[in-house]
Amino acid sequence: MKKFSTINKFSKNFNFLVIGGGIMGLTTALDLSLRGFKVDLIEKHTLGKGATLCAHMIHSGYRYLADNRSLTHLLLKENLILQNIWKNFLIKEKGLMLTVNKKSNKDYLKRFQTNSKDINHRLFKLNRKRIKTMELALNTSIVAGYLNVDYPLKTEFLIKGYSNTLKRQGQIIYENTKIVDVKFCKEKWNIKIKNTDQLEPIEKKYNVVINATGSELDKTAKKFGYNVKIERFFGSMFFIKRVITKRILTLCAPIQPGNTIIPAESGTLIGSTWAKTKKQLRDKSSVAEVLYNINEILDRKIKQNEIKKILYGERVHLAIDEKIDNFSNKRDYAILDHSDDTGKDFFSVLPSKLSLSRFVAEELVDKILRKHKPFKRSKTKKCVINTT
To answer: In this structure, what DSSP letter does residue 121 have?
Structure first.
């Protein structure tokens, strides 16, 4: 691989292009910007679409603790960082309560409790009396619970915060913009882009291109001459126009469709549910299953006619994982280096979970810069995102 001398000088002529305006694209662009690089970000639609649309909380990973201790450890470590840099968008008084009911799987609970000791993070255990005092919406089947550090997230405002931060740093964001032509010439990508309001495309040149397009990861890679095989999952969350709980509630149990309740600005979100097609998500039996699971823990039942809106998102995994049946055990994240001996630098990235986006962006940019010394460390751990 040819090394670019310009990167050693952090030249203004060494440019990065990030394709995709979801949380992965935005966090990657900010990481590059804080390290001193010029970055353009292109989004086909408006910022924050796709899987980001279905992400309304930061995870601690405790939902995966019984069966995936390493993922929980990674998510918990990242959660503590996000609590600081995303503090302006978290609703901490509505943090997660993991509930245990009379039907809870004893083997699952035993693995959960054992692994929580192994990762050395204290859970606040609650008895039935304390739970009922804290959350009146729960029914009498709940016998115990745990408080944890998962918090509701004002995702739309967070996206605006990232956008404003990048613009203040002099970076350019193109929304409603498509790539219409790609060529590689004289060690640079020559890319023509066209906004919906433009009559003619404009041409720009970049040294490195990062593909963070999520559900269009394969199509975008193909435009640049690379093949990426992916597997899609469609997600949904139900919006109920009434406040049901004071905090995030879920069962301390294997993940089931829709067994999480998240307080929102003007109501409640229930989810998330994932399937191979959107049609499966809309199926009456799928909706009924969600309501059944969530009503297992609630005192006042939710009826189907209370669902005012369904939010849809799309999550992508590499096709290498297609033989793994359990969705929650899919690859945590993926960074693909498509670069070759011709000097072309092109990368594809998948975060898998919103709460891993900052970590994955740091890993990605570290990987790129290790190929083009000197190495400069990420500054995103201390960059607090503001609301304006």
So the answer is: -
What pLDDT, on the 0 to 100 scale, is given for residue 227? 92
Question: Which tokens hold the place of 245?
Answer: 């709980």
Please give the domain boundaries of the chain with CATH numbers for all domains: 5-50+156-226+338-382 (3.50.50.60), 69-152+231-321 (3.30.9.10)
**Which strands form 97-101's sheet, in the order they lie side by side?**
124-127, 142-147, 97-101, 249-251, 260-263, 268-275, 230-240, 307-318
- If phi > 0 it is left, if psi is from -120 to 50 it is alpha, else beta; for residue 236 that is beta
Nearest Cα neighbor of 298 from 362, 254, 243 is 243
- The answer to whether the CB of 52 falls within 8 A of the CB of 313 is yes
Total-model pTM: 0.89
Report the chain's mean pLDDT, rounded to a whole number. 87
| Separation CA 316–CA 240 (nearest Å) | 27
For residue 114, pLDDT over 80 is answered with yes
Pick from 97-101, 280-284, 331-335: least confident: 331-335
CA dihedral 249, 254, 257, 261 (to 10 degrees): 0
- Side-chain half-sphere exposure of 221, counting CA atoms within 13 A: 20
